[in-house]
Amino acid sequence: MTVVDDELSLVFAALADPTRRAILARLARGSATVHELAEPFAMTQQAVSKHLKVLEQARLISRTRAAQSRPCVLEPDHLDAATDWIARHRQVWADRHDRLDEHLSALRAEQRGAKETSTP
Questions:
Q1: 11-69 pLDDT, tens per residue?
Q2: What pLDDT score was predicted for residue 74?
Q3: Residue 65 has what pLDDT?
Q4: What sections of 16-79 are H helices per DSSP?
Q5: What distance in Å separates the CA atoms of residue 106 and residue 63, rounded to the nearest whole number?
Q6: Residue 34 included in any domain
Q7: Handedness of CA 88, 13, 38, 79 (dihedral sign)
Q8: How far apart are CA 111 and CA 102, in angstroms?
Q9: Residue 50 maps to which CATH number?
Q10: Helix-strand-coil percent breakdown of the chain, rounded to 5?
Q11: How many domains would you assign to the chain?
């Protein structure tokens, strides 16, 4: 496994959790402290901090210094690897779907042709 694959695995693992996705959606609107991020969830700040650690390890967020607080900031550039992977694989499957569709159309045409020649 290459380093890029490992980073991609971290990103997808981080995105697999709905709480972390909600945190990222909140951070897309601007930086926030752990307390602000914990408000909409029925969990402790410590539990939210664990989610933030996963997001940090995946490099989807970073923490900055602002006086005594450490607001979290979204790092959208690190989503690019996941987006690129999805786009590549979407194209592969779209191409396969198109080839299957062409094959099925050809089979249907053959069946229609066979029925027309066998009908008196």
A1: 999 999 999 999 999 999 999 999 999 999 988 889 999 999 999 999 999 998 766 77
A2: 94
A3: 78
A4: 18-27, 34-38, 45-57
A5: 57
A6: yes
A7: negative
A8: 14
A9: 1.10.10.10
A10: 70, 10, 20
A11: 1
Measure Cα distances from 58 to 7, 47, 61, 110, 120 in Å. 7, 17, 8, 52, 68
Global confidence as pTM = 0.71
pLDDT value of position 5: 55
User: Which has the closest alpha carbon to 72: 22, 19, 36, 21?
Assistant: 36
Whether 52 maps to a domain, the answer reads yes
Q: Which domain holds residue 72?
A: 3-76
- In the block, residue with structure tokens 């229609």: 112
Tokens of 7: 């980073």
Q: Strand ranges (DSSP E) for 22-102?
A: 61-63, 72-74
